[in-house]
Amino acid sequence: MNNLKKTISDILTIARRSLLKLKHNPEQFADVIIMPVFFMLVFAFLFGGAIAGDTKAYLPILIPGILAQTLLGISSATGTAINTDMEKGIFDRFKSLPMARIAPLAGSLVADIPRYAISAAFAILTGYLIGWRPEAGFGAVLVGTLFMIFVTFSISWIFATIGLLVNKAATIQVFSQMIMMILTFMSNAFVPTETLPKVLQTFTRFNPVTHMIAALREIFATGAIGFDFWLSLGMGVAMILIFAPITLRIYNKKI
Amino acid sequence: MTEVREVAIEVKGLLKTFKNQVAVNDLDLTIYKGEVFGILGPNGAGKTTMVRMMATLLKQDAGTIRILGQDTLKDADEVRKLIGLTGQYASVDEDLTAHENLMMFCRLNGLSKKDAKARTTDLLEEFSLTDAAHKKMKNFSGGMRRRLDLAVSLIARPDIIFLDEPTTGLDPRTRGQMWETIRKLVEAGSTILLTTQYLDEADQLADRIAVIDRGSLVALGTPDELKNLIGNTELHIKIVNRRFLEDARIHISAILNVGTTVDDLNNTIKAPITETKFLTQVLNRLEEAKIKIDEVSIKKPSLDEVFLEVTGN
Protein backbone atom coordinates (compact mmCIF):
# COMPACT_ATOMS: atom_id res chain seq x y z
CA MET A 1 0.00 0.00 0.00
CA ASN A 2 2.85 2.30 0.93
CA ASN A 3 4.49 1.43 -2.36
CA LEU A 4 1.40 2.36 -4.31
CA LYS A 5 1.21 5.67 -2.50
CA LYS A 6 4.84 6.46 -3.33
CA THR A 7 4.29 5.39 -6.96
CA ILE A 8 1.31 7.71 -7.35
CA SER A 9 3.18 10.51 -5.61
CA ASP A 10 6.18 9.99 -7.94
CA ILE A 11 3.97 10.01 -11.03
CA LEU A 12 2.35 13.25 -9.89
CA THR A 13 5.75 14.78 -9.12
CA ILE A 14 6.95 14.00 -12.65
CA ALA A 15 3.65 15.22 -14.12
CA ARG A 16 4.17 18.44 -12.18
CA ARG A 17 7.60 18.72 -13.78
CA SER A 18 6.05 18.61 -17.25
CA LEU A 19 3.45 21.18 -16.26
CA LEU A 20 6.10 23.51 -14.86
CA LYS A 21 7.94 23.20 -18.17
CA LEU A 22 4.75 24.28 -19.95
CA LYS A 23 4.36 27.16 -17.54
CA HIS A 24 7.90 28.34 -18.33
CA ASN A 25 7.52 27.75 -22.08
CA PRO A 26 3.88 28.60 -22.81
CA GLU A 27 4.56 28.66 -26.56
CA GLN A 28 4.34 24.86 -26.37
CA PHE A 29 0.59 25.31 -26.07
CA ALA A 30 0.40 26.75 -29.60
CA ASP A 31 -0.12 23.49 -31.47
CA VAL A 32 -2.63 22.33 -28.89
CA ILE A 33 -4.77 25.38 -29.65
CA ILE A 34 -4.11 25.96 -33.34
CA MET A 35 -4.60 22.37 -34.51
CA PRO A 36 -8.24 21.85 -33.51
CA VAL A 37 -9.31 25.31 -34.64
CA PHE A 38 -7.59 24.98 -37.99
CA PHE A 39 -8.87 21.50 -38.79
CA MET A 40 -12.35 22.37 -37.63
CA LEU A 41 -12.58 25.34 -40.00
CA VAL A 42 -10.99 23.55 -42.95
CA PHE A 43 -13.16 20.43 -42.72
CA ALA A 44 -16.40 22.24 -41.91
CA PHE A 45 -16.25 24.71 -44.75
CA LEU A 46 -14.31 22.68 -47.30
CA PHE A 47 -15.91 19.24 -47.02
CA GLY A 48 -19.14 20.00 -45.15
CA GLY A 49 -21.14 20.72 -48.28
CA ALA A 50 -19.83 17.70 -50.16
CA ILE A 51 -20.32 15.17 -47.39
CA ALA A 52 -23.45 16.28 -45.57
CA GLY A 53 -25.15 18.79 -47.86
CA ASP A 54 -24.14 21.84 -45.85
CA THR A 55 -21.71 22.88 -43.13
CA LYS A 56 -24.20 22.95 -40.31
CA ALA A 57 -25.47 19.45 -41.01
CA TYR A 58 -21.89 18.17 -41.08
CA LEU A 59 -20.90 19.58 -37.68
CA PRO A 60 -22.39 16.80 -35.49
CA ILE A 61 -20.48 14.24 -37.57
CA LEU A 62 -17.33 16.32 -37.80
CA ILE A 63 -16.82 17.50 -34.22
CA PRO A 64 -16.30 14.09 -32.62
CA GLY A 65 -13.95 13.32 -35.53
CA ILE A 66 -11.92 16.47 -35.00
CA LEU A 67 -11.78 15.81 -31.26
CA ALA A 68 -10.41 12.34 -31.92
CA GLN A 69 -7.94 13.58 -34.50
CA THR A 70 -6.47 16.43 -32.46
CA LEU A 71 -6.27 14.49 -29.24
CA LEU A 72 -4.61 11.58 -30.99
CA GLY A 73 -2.29 14.08 -32.62
CA ILE A 74 -1.15 15.27 -29.21
CA SER A 75 -0.80 11.75 -27.92
CA SER A 76 1.24 10.70 -30.97
CA ALA A 77 3.87 13.26 -29.96
CA THR A 78 4.39 11.36 -26.68
CA GLY A 79 6.96 8.97 -28.12
CA THR A 80 9.19 11.70 -29.50
CA ALA A 81 8.93 13.70 -26.27
CA ILE A 82 9.90 10.74 -24.09
CA ASN A 83 12.70 9.77 -26.42
CA THR A 84 14.34 13.22 -26.50
CA ASP A 85 13.81 13.62 -22.77
CA MET A 86 15.65 10.36 -22.14
CA GLU A 87 18.68 11.58 -24.02
CA LYS A 88 19.25 14.15 -21.29
CA GLY A 89 21.22 13.62 -18.12
CA ILE A 90 18.14 13.98 -15.98
CA PHE A 91 17.04 10.42 -16.74
CA ASP A 92 20.30 9.19 -15.23
CA ARG A 93 19.26 10.97 -12.10
CA PHE A 94 15.75 9.50 -12.19
CA LYS A 95 17.21 6.03 -12.54
CA SER A 96 19.63 6.51 -9.67
CA LEU A 97 16.86 7.55 -7.27
CA PRO A 98 14.81 5.23 -5.06
CA MET A 99 11.67 6.17 -6.97
CA ALA A 100 8.98 4.24 -8.86
CA ARG A 101 10.47 3.09 -12.16
CA ILE A 102 7.25 3.71 -14.04
CA ALA A 103 6.98 7.30 -12.83
CA PRO A 104 9.16 9.12 -15.40
CA LEU A 105 7.08 7.55 -18.18
CA ALA A 106 3.65 7.60 -16.61
CA GLY A 107 4.21 11.11 -15.28
CA SER A 108 4.91 12.46 -18.77
CA LEU A 109 1.78 10.79 -20.11
CA VAL A 110 -0.37 12.06 -17.24
CA ALA A 111 0.96 15.57 -17.83
CA ASP A 112 -0.53 15.43 -21.33
CA ILE A 113 -4.05 15.32 -19.86
CA PRO A 114 -4.32 19.11 -19.44
CA ARG A 115 -3.14 19.47 -23.03
CA TYR A 116 -5.92 17.15 -24.20
CA ALA A 117 -8.42 19.14 -22.17
CA ILE A 118 -7.30 22.49 -23.58
CA SER A 119 -7.29 21.16 -27.12
CA ALA A 120 -10.77 19.65 -26.68
CA ALA A 121 -12.05 22.90 -25.21
CA PHE A 122 -10.84 24.85 -28.24
CA ALA A 123 -12.34 22.34 -30.66
CA ILE A 124 -15.69 22.53 -28.91
CA LEU A 125 -15.59 26.31 -28.67
CA THR A 126 -14.81 26.65 -32.39
CA GLY A 127 -17.64 24.25 -33.18
CA TYR A 128 -20.00 26.32 -31.08
CA LEU A 129 -18.94 29.55 -32.76
CA ILE A 130 -19.64 28.18 -36.24
CA GLY A 131 -23.06 27.01 -35.25
CA TRP A 132 -22.85 23.60 -33.58
CA ARG A 133 -25.54 23.04 -30.95
CA PRO A 134 -25.23 19.55 -29.41
CA GLU A 135 -28.69 18.06 -28.97
CA ALA A 136 -27.91 16.41 -25.65
CA GLY A 137 -26.60 19.63 -24.12
CA PHE A 138 -23.21 20.61 -22.77
CA GLY A 139 -23.36 18.26 -19.79
CA ALA A 140 -23.22 15.39 -22.27
CA VAL A 141 -20.37 17.13 -24.11
CA LEU A 142 -18.41 17.25 -20.87
CA VAL A 143 -18.96 13.54 -20.20
CA GLY A 144 -18.03 12.73 -23.78
CA THR A 145 -14.83 14.80 -23.60
CA LEU A 146 -13.69 13.15 -20.37
CA PHE A 147 -14.31 9.75 -21.93
CA MET A 148 -12.33 10.84 -24.98
CA ILE A 149 -9.41 12.06 -22.85
CA PHE A 150 -9.22 8.76 -21.03
CA VAL A 151 -9.17 6.75 -24.27
CA THR A 152 -6.47 8.92 -25.86
CA PHE A 153 -4.44 8.68 -22.66
CA SER A 154 -4.62 4.88 -23.00
CA ILE A 155 -3.57 5.06 -26.64
CA SER A 156 -0.61 7.29 -25.71
CA TRP A 157 0.95 4.20 -24.08
CA ILE A 158 1.33 2.73 -27.59
CA PHE A 159 3.20 5.82 -28.70
CA ALA A 160 5.33 5.71 -25.54
CA THR A 161 6.31 2.13 -26.45
CA ILE A 162 7.32 3.28 -29.93
CA GLY A 163 9.30 6.12 -28.38
CA LEU A 164 11.32 3.63 -26.36
CA LEU A 165 11.69 1.01 -29.08
CA VAL A 166 12.94 3.28 -31.84
CA ASN A 167 16.18 5.13 -31.27
CA LYS A 168 15.96 8.14 -33.57
CA ALA A 169 13.50 10.87 -32.64
CA ALA A 170 12.82 11.73 -36.29
CA THR A 171 11.94 8.11 -37.12
CA ILE A 172 9.60 7.95 -34.15
CA GLN A 173 7.81 11.03 -35.39
CA VAL A 174 7.26 9.63 -38.86
CA PHE A 175 6.13 6.30 -37.45
CA SER A 176 3.77 7.85 -34.89
CA GLN A 177 2.29 10.23 -37.45
CA MET A 178 1.64 7.33 -39.78
CA ILE A 179 -0.13 5.30 -37.12
CA MET A 180 -2.12 8.35 -36.12
CA MET A 181 -3.18 9.04 -39.71
CA ILE A 182 -4.21 5.43 -40.31
CA LEU A 183 -6.20 5.30 -37.09
CA THR A 184 -8.06 8.54 -37.72
CA PHE A 185 -8.59 8.53 -41.49
CA MET A 186 -9.46 4.83 -41.76
CA SER A 187 -12.30 5.28 -39.36
CA ASN A 188 -15.69 6.94 -39.31
CA ALA A 189 -14.07 10.22 -38.21
CA PHE A 190 -14.84 12.27 -41.29
CA VAL A 191 -16.90 10.12 -43.66
CA PRO A 192 -19.72 7.60 -43.35
CA THR A 193 -18.09 4.17 -43.47
CA GLU A 194 -20.75 2.79 -45.82
CA THR A 195 -19.11 4.77 -48.61
CA LEU A 196 -15.82 2.89 -48.20
CA PRO A 197 -14.65 -0.23 -50.10
CA LYS A 198 -15.29 -3.54 -48.33
CA VAL A 199 -11.72 -4.09 -47.08
CA LEU A 200 -11.56 -0.66 -45.51
CA GLN A 201 -14.97 -1.15 -43.95
CA THR A 202 -13.68 -4.22 -42.17
CA PHE A 203 -10.65 -2.35 -40.93
CA THR A 204 -12.74 0.53 -39.63
CA ARG A 205 -14.88 -1.91 -37.71
CA PHE A 206 -11.85 -3.14 -35.78
CA ASN A 207 -10.36 0.30 -35.38
CA PRO A 208 -10.80 1.46 -31.76
CA VAL A 209 -11.04 5.05 -32.98
CA THR A 210 -14.23 4.17 -34.90
CA HIS A 211 -15.90 2.97 -31.72
CA MET A 212 -14.62 5.91 -29.75
CA ILE A 213 -16.11 8.35 -32.26
CA ALA A 214 -19.34 6.40 -32.54
CA ALA A 215 -19.68 6.52 -28.77
CA LEU A 216 -18.97 10.23 -28.77
CA ARG A 217 -21.57 10.96 -31.48
CA GLU A 218 -24.15 8.99 -29.55
CA ILE A 219 -23.43 10.87 -26.33
CA PHE A 220 -23.47 14.25 -28.06
CA ALA A 221 -26.67 13.50 -29.97
CA THR A 222 -28.76 11.63 -27.40
CA GLY A 223 -26.81 11.70 -24.13
CA ALA A 224 -26.98 7.89 -24.13
CA ILE A 225 -24.06 5.72 -23.09
CA GLY A 226 -24.14 2.68 -25.32
CA PHE A 227 -22.20 -0.35 -26.47
CA ASP A 228 -19.49 1.64 -28.28
CA PHE A 229 -18.76 3.58 -25.11
CA TRP A 230 -18.13 0.48 -23.03
CA LEU A 231 -16.22 -1.20 -25.82
CA SER A 232 -13.85 1.76 -26.22
CA LEU A 233 -13.47 2.09 -22.48
CA GLY A 234 -12.60 -1.61 -22.25
CA MET A 235 -10.13 -1.27 -25.13
CA GLY A 236 -8.55 1.69 -23.31
CA VAL A 237 -8.09 -0.24 -20.09
CA ALA A 238 -6.73 -3.19 -22.05
CA MET A 239 -4.22 -0.96 -23.83
CA ILE A 240 -2.89 0.40 -20.52
CA LEU A 241 -2.71 -3.13 -19.09
CA ILE A 242 -0.81 -4.37 -22.13
CA PHE A 243 1.41 -1.46 -23.04
CA ALA A 244 2.34 -0.05 -19.62
CA PRO A 245 4.19 -3.24 -18.58
CA ILE A 246 5.80 -3.51 -22.05
CA THR A 247 7.02 0.10 -21.87
CA LEU A 248 8.34 -0.43 -18.37
CA ARG A 249 10.17 -3.55 -19.47
CA ILE A 250 11.87 -1.83 -22.36
CA TYR A 251 12.70 1.12 -20.13
CA ASN A 252 14.27 -1.12 -17.51
CA LYS A 253 16.26 -2.96 -20.17
CA LYS A 254 17.54 0.32 -21.56
CA ILE A 255 19.83 0.94 -18.61
CA MET B 1 48.63 -0.80 14.63
CA THR B 2 46.62 -1.98 11.67
CA GLU B 3 43.31 -0.24 11.58
CA VAL B 4 40.34 -2.31 10.45
CA ARG B 5 38.65 -0.18 7.86
CA GLU B 6 35.06 -0.65 6.85
CA VAL B 7 34.54 -1.35 3.19
CA ALA B 8 32.27 1.06 1.35
CA ILE B 9 32.50 -0.22 -2.21
CA GLU B 10 33.76 -3.58 -3.29
CA VAL B 11 34.26 -4.31 -6.96
CA LYS B 12 35.22 -7.78 -8.12
CA GLY B 13 36.03 -8.96 -11.63
CA LEU B 14 34.02 -6.18 -13.22
CA LEU B 15 33.70 -6.53 -16.97
CA LYS B 16 31.79 -4.50 -19.54
CA THR B 17 32.01 -4.55 -23.30
CA PHE B 18 30.28 -2.40 -25.85
CA LYS B 19 30.08 -3.93 -29.32
CA ASN B 20 33.36 -5.86 -29.13
CA GLN B 21 35.12 -3.01 -27.40
CA VAL B 22 36.17 -3.65 -23.83
CA ALA B 23 35.19 -0.66 -21.72
CA VAL B 24 36.02 -2.13 -18.31
CA ASN B 25 38.35 -5.08 -18.16
CA ASP B 26 38.32 -7.35 -15.11
CA LEU B 27 38.46 -4.62 -12.50
CA ASP B 28 38.95 -5.23 -8.78
CA LEU B 29 38.70 -2.34 -6.34
CA THR B 30 38.10 -1.87 -2.64
CA ILE B 31 37.09 1.55 -1.45
CA TYR B 32 36.91 2.27 2.27
CA LYS B 33 34.46 4.31 4.28
CA GLY B 34 35.36 7.95 4.69
CA GLU B 35 37.98 8.09 1.99
CA VAL B 36 38.09 10.10 -1.18
CA PHE B 37 38.91 7.68 -3.92
CA GLY B 38 39.99 9.10 -7.23
CA ILE B 39 39.67 7.32 -10.54
CA LEU B 40 42.09 8.97 -12.88
CA GLY B 41 42.35 8.32 -16.56
CA PRO B 42 42.29 9.90 -19.98
CA ASN B 43 39.11 10.43 -21.97
CA GLY B 44 37.54 7.14 -22.96
CA ALA B 45 39.43 5.14 -20.34
CA GLY B 46 36.18 3.71 -18.97
CA LYS B 47 35.77 5.92 -15.89
CA THR B 48 32.19 6.95 -16.53
CA THR B 49 31.22 3.39 -17.45
CA MET B 50 32.55 2.22 -14.07
CA VAL B 51 30.63 4.88 -12.17
CA ARG B 52 27.44 4.17 -14.10
CA MET B 53 27.65 0.52 -13.13
CA MET B 54 28.32 1.38 -9.49
CA ALA B 55 25.37 3.77 -9.51
CA THR B 56 23.00 1.07 -10.92
CA LEU B 57 22.60 2.91 -14.22
CA LEU B 58 24.29 0.23 -16.27
CA LYS B 59 24.47 -3.54 -15.89
CA GLN B 60 27.84 -5.20 -16.07
CA ASP B 61 28.58 -8.23 -18.26
CA ALA B 62 30.42 -10.01 -15.43
CA GLY B 63 31.64 -9.40 -11.91
CA THR B 64 29.99 -7.94 -8.83
CA ILE B 65 29.73 -4.56 -7.18
CA ARG B 66 28.73 -4.23 -3.54
CA ILE B 67 27.86 -0.87 -2.07
CA LEU B 68 27.97 -1.10 1.75
CA GLY B 69 27.28 -4.80 1.30
CA GLN B 70 24.37 -4.41 -1.12
CA ASP B 71 24.64 -5.88 -4.59
CA THR B 72 24.04 -3.36 -7.38
CA LEU B 73 22.13 -5.86 -9.47
CA LYS B 74 20.15 -7.75 -6.85
CA ASP B 75 19.50 -4.94 -4.37
CA ALA B 76 19.49 -2.00 -6.79
CA ASP B 77 16.76 -0.19 -4.86
CA GLU B 78 18.70 -0.47 -1.61
CA VAL B 79 21.84 0.76 -3.33
CA ARG B 80 19.95 3.77 -4.70
CA LYS B 81 19.10 4.80 -1.16
CA LEU B 82 22.79 4.85 -0.23
CA ILE B 83 24.26 6.78 -3.13
CA GLY B 84 24.23 10.26 -4.57
CA LEU B 85 25.35 10.82 -8.13
CA THR B 86 26.64 13.94 -9.81
CA GLY B 87 27.14 13.24 -13.47
CA GLN B 88 29.51 14.62 -16.01
CA TYR B 89 26.71 16.65 -17.50
CA ALA B 90 24.44 18.45 -15.12
CA SER B 91 21.56 16.06 -14.60
CA VAL B 92 18.94 18.55 -13.54
CA ASP B 93 16.05 19.95 -15.52
CA GLU B 94 17.10 22.89 -17.67
CA ASP B 95 13.59 24.24 -18.02
CA LEU B 96 12.93 24.46 -14.29
CA THR B 97 14.28 26.83 -11.66
CA ALA B 98 16.77 25.75 -9.01
CA HIS B 99 14.01 25.75 -6.43
CA GLU B 100 11.67 23.67 -8.59
CA ASN B 101 14.44 21.19 -9.33
CA LEU B 102 15.28 20.73 -5.68
CA MET B 103 11.64 20.40 -4.66
CA MET B 104 11.05 17.78 -7.34
CA PHE B 105 14.05 15.69 -6.38
CA CYS B 106 13.26 16.00 -2.67
CA ARG B 107 9.78 14.62 -3.34
CA LEU B 108 11.19 11.81 -5.51
CA ASN B 109 13.58 10.97 -2.70
CA GLY B 110 10.53 10.37 -0.57
CA LEU B 111 10.50 13.54 1.54
CA SER B 112 7.12 14.93 2.58
CA LYS B 113 6.11 18.30 1.15
CA LYS B 114 7.02 20.04 4.38
CA ASP B 115 10.42 18.33 4.68
CA ALA B 116 11.07 18.94 1.00
CA LYS B 117 10.54 22.67 1.47
CA ALA B 118 12.87 22.81 4.46
CA ARG B 119 15.57 20.75 2.77
CA THR B 120 15.33 22.85 -0.40
CA THR B 121 15.80 26.06 1.58
CA ASP B 122 18.78 24.57 3.44
CA LEU B 123 20.50 23.29 0.32
CA LEU B 124 19.99 26.53 -1.61
CA GLU B 125 21.60 28.31 1.33
CA GLU B 126 24.43 25.81 1.68
CA PHE B 127 25.36 26.03 -2.00
CA SER B 128 24.91 29.82 -2.21
CA LEU B 129 22.04 29.54 -4.66
CA THR B 130 19.39 31.34 -2.62
CA ASP B 131 19.56 34.49 -4.74
CA ALA B 132 19.22 32.54 -7.97
CA ALA B 133 16.61 30.14 -6.61
CA HIS B 134 13.85 31.27 -8.94
CA LYS B 135 15.92 31.72 -12.06
CA LYS B 136 15.59 29.15 -14.83
CA MET B 137 18.52 26.74 -15.01
CA LYS B 138 19.05 27.71 -18.64
CA ASN B 139 20.34 31.06 -17.42
CA PHE B 140 22.74 29.52 -14.89
CA SER B 141 26.50 29.63 -15.25
CA GLY B 142 28.42 26.37 -15.48
CA GLY B 143 29.53 26.60 -11.87
CA MET B 144 26.02 27.24 -10.58
CA ARG B 145 24.72 24.28 -12.54
CA ARG B 146 27.31 21.97 -11.00
CA ARG B 147 26.53 23.30 -7.56
CA LEU B 148 22.83 22.67 -8.04
CA ASP B 149 23.60 19.25 -9.43
CA LEU B 150 25.70 18.46 -6.37
CA ALA B 151 23.05 19.87 -4.05
CA VAL B 152 20.50 17.55 -5.67
CA SER B 153 22.77 14.54 -5.10
CA LEU B 154 23.00 15.38 -1.42
CA ILE B 155 19.27 15.59 -0.72
CA ALA B 156 19.03 12.19 0.90
CA ARG B 157 22.33 12.67 2.78
CA PRO B 158 23.86 9.69 0.97
CA ASP B 159 26.66 7.67 2.57
CA ILE B 160 28.46 7.43 -0.73
CA ILE B 161 28.78 10.18 -3.28
CA PHE B 162 29.83 9.61 -6.87
CA LEU B 163 31.30 12.64 -8.56
CA ASP B 164 31.81 11.95 -12.23
CA GLU B 165 34.23 14.58 -13.55
CA PRO B 166 32.80 17.29 -11.34
CA THR B 167 34.92 20.09 -12.73
CA THR B 168 35.29 19.20 -16.41
CA GLY B 169 34.65 22.30 -18.46
CA LEU B 170 34.73 24.74 -15.56
CA ASP B 171 36.97 27.78 -15.44
CA PRO B 172 39.83 27.71 -12.90
CA ARG B 173 38.11 29.93 -10.34
CA THR B 174 34.88 27.94 -10.39
CA ARG B 175 36.94 24.79 -10.22
CA GLY B 176 38.60 26.04 -7.05
CA GLN B 177 35.18 26.74 -5.55
CA MET B 178 34.02 23.25 -6.47
CA TRP B 179 37.10 21.80 -4.75
CA GLU B 180 36.24 23.74 -1.61
CA THR B 181 32.73 22.34 -1.69
CA ILE B 182 34.06 18.82 -2.11
CA ARG B 183 36.50 19.29 0.79
CA LYS B 184 33.58 20.29 2.99
CA LEU B 185 31.85 17.05 2.11
CA VAL B 186 34.96 15.18 3.06
CA GLU B 187 35.08 16.90 6.43
CA ALA B 188 31.47 15.88 6.96
CA GLY B 189 32.65 12.28 6.66
CA SER B 190 31.21 11.25 3.31
CA THR B 191 32.80 8.55 1.21
CA ILE B 192 33.53 10.03 -2.17
CA LEU B 193 34.35 8.38 -5.44
CA LEU B 194 35.68 10.95 -7.83
CA THR B 195 36.56 10.48 -11.46
CA THR B 196 38.73 13.01 -13.16
CA GLN B 197 41.05 13.49 -16.06
CA TYR B 198 42.94 16.19 -14.19
CA LEU B 199 46.00 15.04 -12.29
CA ASP B 200 46.12 18.05 -10.02
CA GLU B 201 42.49 17.45 -9.07
CA ALA B 202 43.21 13.87 -8.04
CA ASP B 203 46.35 15.02 -6.24
CA GLN B 204 44.47 17.76 -4.37
CA LEU B 205 41.39 15.82 -3.36
CA ALA B 206 41.97 12.10 -3.36
CA ASP B 207 43.31 9.94 -0.52
CA ARG B 208 43.93 7.13 -2.94
CA ILE B 209 44.02 7.07 -6.70
CA ALA B 210 43.38 4.35 -9.21
CA VAL B 211 44.89 5.08 -12.57
CA ILE B 212 42.81 3.59 -15.36
CA ASP B 213 43.78 3.13 -18.95
CA ARG B 214 41.68 1.39 -21.60
CA GLY B 215 39.42 -0.10 -18.96
CA SER B 216 42.19 -1.64 -16.89
CA LEU B 217 43.70 -0.67 -13.59
CA VAL B 218 47.31 0.30 -14.23
CA ALA B 219 48.30 1.76 -10.85
CA LEU B 220 46.78 2.17 -7.41
CA GLY B 221 47.92 3.99 -4.30
CA THR B 222 48.08 7.27 -2.43
CA PRO B 223 49.31 10.22 -4.47
CA ASP B 224 52.67 9.86 -2.69
CA GLU B 225 52.90 6.15 -3.32
CA LEU B 226 52.19 6.72 -6.97
CA LYS B 227 54.86 9.38 -7.14
CA ASN B 228 57.32 7.05 -5.44
CA LEU B 229 56.39 4.38 -7.91
CA ILE B 230 58.67 5.76 -10.53
CA GLY B 231 61.25 6.19 -7.82
CA ASN B 232 63.15 9.29 -8.69
CA THR B 233 62.52 11.34 -5.58
CA GLU B 234 65.56 13.58 -5.45
CA LEU B 235 67.42 15.17 -2.60
CA HIS B 236 68.79 18.61 -3.37
CA ILE B 237 71.36 20.12 -1.00
CA LYS B 238 72.76 23.56 -1.55
CA ILE B 239 75.83 24.45 0.49
CA VAL B 240 77.13 27.87 1.44
CA ASN B 241 80.79 27.61 0.49
CA ARG B 242 81.60 26.14 -2.90
CA ARG B 243 85.05 25.06 -1.73
CA PHE B 244 83.41 22.20 0.17
CA LEU B 245 81.27 21.10 -2.74
CA GLU B 246 83.41 18.06 -3.54
CA ASP B 247 83.72 17.05 0.17
CA ALA B 248 79.99 17.29 0.60
CA ARG B 249 79.44 15.21 -2.52
CA ILE B 250 81.64 12.41 -1.16
CA HIS B 251 79.81 12.36 2.20
CA ILE B 252 76.39 12.26 0.55
CA SER B 253 77.45 9.63 -1.92
CA ALA B 254 78.76 7.45 0.90
CA ILE B 255 75.54 7.53 2.88
CA LEU B 256 73.08 7.14 0.04
CA ASN B 257 75.32 4.69 -1.74
CA VAL B 258 74.43 6.13 -5.12
CA GLY B 259 75.93 8.33 -7.75
CA THR B 260 75.32 12.06 -7.38
CA THR B 261 75.30 14.97 -9.74
CA VAL B 262 76.75 18.35 -8.96
CA ASP B 263 75.20 21.58 -10.09
CA ASP B 264 78.24 23.88 -9.95
CA LEU B 265 76.37 27.02 -10.77
CA ASN B 266 74.04 26.68 -7.81
CA ASN B 267 76.42 24.99 -5.33
CA THR B 268 73.92 22.15 -5.30
CA ILE B 269 74.34 18.39 -5.04
CA LYS B 270 71.54 16.21 -6.36
CA ALA B 271 71.01 12.56 -5.51
CA PRO B 272 68.12 10.11 -5.69
CA ILE B 273 66.81 9.21 -2.25
CA THR B 274 64.61 6.28 -1.29
CA GLU B 275 63.93 6.78 2.40
CA THR B 276 63.66 9.94 4.45
CA LYS B 277 65.77 8.48 7.30
CA PHE B 278 68.81 8.95 5.03
CA LEU B 279 68.13 12.65 5.03
CA THR B 280 68.87 12.95 8.79
CA GLN B 281 72.03 10.95 8.36
CA VAL B 282 73.19 13.19 5.52
CA LEU B 283 72.46 16.32 7.52
CA ASN B 284 74.25 14.97 10.62
CA ARG B 285 77.32 13.99 8.62
CA LEU B 286 77.60 17.41 6.99
CA GLU B 287 77.14 19.04 10.39
CA GLU B 288 80.01 16.94 11.79
CA ALA B 289 82.15 17.87 8.81
CA LYS B 290 81.27 21.53 9.51
CA ILE B 291 79.92 22.06 6.02
CA LYS B 292 77.32 24.77 6.15
CA ILE B 293 74.06 24.13 4.35
CA ASP B 294 72.10 26.82 2.61
CA GLU B 295 69.05 24.92 1.41
CA VAL B 296 67.64 21.40 1.56
CA SER B 297 64.77 20.11 -0.50
CA ILE B 298 63.23 16.86 -1.65
CA LYS B 299 61.77 16.92 -5.11
CA LYS B 300 59.06 14.43 -5.85
CA PRO B 301 58.09 13.54 -9.38
CA SER B 302 54.82 15.15 -10.37
CA LEU B 303 51.75 13.02 -10.82
CA ASP B 304 51.91 13.93 -14.48
CA GLU B 305 55.16 12.01 -14.83
CA VAL B 306 53.62 9.03 -13.05
CA PHE B 307 50.62 9.19 -15.29
CA LEU B 308 52.62 9.24 -18.47
CA GLU B 309 54.82 6.46 -17.16
CA VAL B 310 52.02 4.05 -16.17
CA THR B 311 49.73 4.67 -19.09
CA GLY B 312 52.66 4.34 -21.42
CA ASN B 313 51.56 7.34 -23.46
Largest sheet of chain B: 6 strands, mixed
Biggest interface, chains and residue tallies = A-B, 25 and 31 residues
Contiguous uncertain segments of 5+ residues of chain A: none
What shape does the CA trace of chain A take?
Answer: globular
**CA-based gyration radius of chain A:** 19 Å
The total strand number of chain B stands at: 14
Mean pLDDT of chain A: 89
The overall average pLDDT of chain B, rounded, is 87
Distance between the termini of chain A: 27 Å
Walkthrough of the structure:
- The complex is a heterodimer of chains A (255) and B (313).
- Chain A has helices spanning 2-24, 30-46, 48-52, 55-76, 78-87, 90-96, 103-111, 113-129, 137-165, 169-185, 198-206, 208-222, 227-254.
- Chain A is mostly helical and 255 residues long.
- In chain A, helix 4 (55-76) crosses helix 12 (208-222).
- In chain B, 37% of the residues lie in helices and 27% in strands.
- Chain B has eleven helices and 14 strands.
- Chain B has helices spanning 47-54, 76-82, 98-108, 113-126, 142-153, 172-187, 199-205, 223-229, 245-256, 277-288, 303-311, and strands at 7-18, 21-32, 36-40, 62-67, 70-71, 83-86, 160-164, 191-196, 208-213, 216-221, 234-239, 261-263, 268-272, 293-299.
- In chain B, the strands form three sheets. A six-stranded mixed beta sheet of chain B has the order 6-7-8-3-9-10, sandwiched between helices.
- In chain B, helix 3 (98-108) packs across helix 4 (113-126), helix 5 (142-153) runs parallel beside helix 6 (172-187) and helix 9 (245-256) packs antiparallel against helix 10 (277-288).
- The longest helix of chain B is centred in the middle third of the chain and has 16 residues, at 172-187.
- The chains are: A mainly alpha (255), B alpha/beta (313).
- The interface between A and B is medium-sized, with 25 and 31 residues.
